[in-house]
Design a protein that fits this description.
It is a single chain. This protein is an alpha+beta fold. The protein is 33% helix and 23% strand. Strand 4, helix 3 and strand 5 form a beta-alpha-beta unit. Helix 1 runs parallel beside helix 3, helix 2 packs parallel to helix 3 and helix 4 crosses helix 5. The longest helix is centred in the middle third of the chain and has 18 residues. The protein binds adenosine-5'-diphosphate and magnesium ion (MG). Adenosine-5'-diphosphate (ADP) binds next to helix 1, strand 4 and strand 5.
Length: 348
Amino acid sequence: MLEDKNPLRTQLSELGEFKLIEHLTQNFKISQKSTVKGIGDDAAILSYNNKQIVITTDLLVEGVHFDLSYVPLKHLGYKAVMVNLSDVYAMNAMAKQITVSIAVSNRFPVEALEELYAGIETAAKIYDIDVVGGDTTSSTSGLIISVTAIGEVEKGNAVLRSGAKPNDLLVVSGDIGGAYMGLQVLEREKEVFKVNPNNQPDLSMYTYIVERQLKPEARKDIVELLSKLDVKPTSMIDISDGLSSEIIHLCKQSKVGVDLYENKIPLDPQVISTCEEFDIDSTTIALNGGEDYELLMTISQEDYPKIKSNPNLTVIGYMTDGKSGMHLVTRAEQKIPIIAKGWNALKN
Ligand code: ADP
Ligand code: MG
């Protein structure tokens, strides 16, 4: 489907490790005050004065987390950065630096890695972060990318998973289920392509959900918005594995229960229509699909007037006491227990 039409194939061995690192990182500039020394020495130097620092890391493995038959390398580079920034924002912190480590087989030419780094560079520019280091090594098969993100937060402003209280409102940013349905469309087109390689897929009906899968955005804007609205959530988590599994994390760590309202879950019309086409229930997708990278938070009732007319934030439920348990209140007003069926990285 997205075959490599680039006739240029420079073997990695032609450059060697050091030239390759130099080549891939030549465009990275330093823009953060907290970056004292970036790429080029044995270690980066960062200076954060009185701020607290958050650090998070993620590992993406070809064949487990991504399939290069339909994921363009540029998008992969972008997404590898997003999944990490999303974890920083979920702490109510601002991301400032990343390191990028890659293991590549000689199946990849230099031009492929240039594409990957173009995506990383775009992400770094848009989200205003410095790339301050990494590591480069070979792998016997496939591509592995590990990104580490570093962020800062004012002392006392970090938001943990453990702070939710009974009667707090459960709030989600954006809409959910899109990334999972985008993946279903891409997987279907891949099967069609295998049978008939001349059949160019028409994805025009699915642009929003395919983009949600291939080019997710971490919600830096939501952290900025919350600060502007003077709302500090009582707990927060990013939605990487699906709403139900993230709700369970918040409830367990905060020792509270929840009533989640099915009719409040924000879904894009394209998610609803694609669910109909695939004959899947859209609530099931919202609960169990993953990779939306929206923020799920709880806020105190007092803060409701500050968020109520904001189109980026939707109240989807209420926290209850721990003994009441975790429930979905269906459109028919039945209460059913919430269980985690989310995407589990260790399942396959
Ligand atoms: P060392 O031998 O000390 O590990 P390297 O030669 O691996 O040093 O790295 C040299 C510099 O380039 C370091 O600043 C390192 O952080 C950076 N670097 C190495 N690989 C990458 C990469 N894939 N992306 C970004 N920076 C990298
Ligand atoms: Mg090294």
